Amino acid sequence: MSEKQYHIDLAPGDVGRYVILPGDPGRAEKISHYFDNPQEMAFKREFRTFTGTVDGIKVSVTSTGIGCPSAAIALEELIHIGADTFIRVGTAGSLQEEVEVGHLAIATGAIREEGTTRQYIPLSYPAVSDPDVLFALRQAAIELGYPHHLGITHCKDAFYSEEAGYSAQVEFNDTLWKTWLRANVISTSMEEAAIFVIGALRKVRVGALATIIGQTWAGHPIVKSIDPENAILTALRAFAIMDKQ
Asked: Residue 211's closest CA among 69, 94, 105, 88?
């Protein structure tokens, strides 16, 4: 198959088997600066891709935009052209007091409180990280000495419904957030459920880590912008760990 994919504008050979998935096209460019000899391969809609090498390993980064619908499109089309190992690198709000701003949240699974994955498979199907990627991310974070937490993340479609009193479903949402907090859910974000479910269905390796930028447990979805370098370096180190296995 040589035809370019409709949305990401890429063909087989344009990417490595290892792909980082940020949301922001600007962050894709920032991540490419960690590659040797990065080359911009395509920039169509929210999907911006760079490919290069890291320690001799061919790696790529493709931005997915915000939320599960566009993340699902990017992942499906990247799989079509030969990529098979993916790490979502993004930001998240903390749902536990000990998961502090600046820490890394490595997702073991995701609560499917979004709409995209329901069109793939019933909600009884779990959204979980591939174990190879999960353990490589944990090992990488330990080796690099970065504060990190492993646990379930929450995945949603509506960002501003997090704000206290903003949604029309005030009582419902307030109860729900308290439930996730009591259930030891560590973070909330907007893409992991789609990445995990599609990864399992398509038999590719997927994982996710996020830099904590907010305290959703305290009603502050965004506290401050954090440089994502720790997450980027953790993902790249995880690729290297897996490549040696």
From this structure: 105
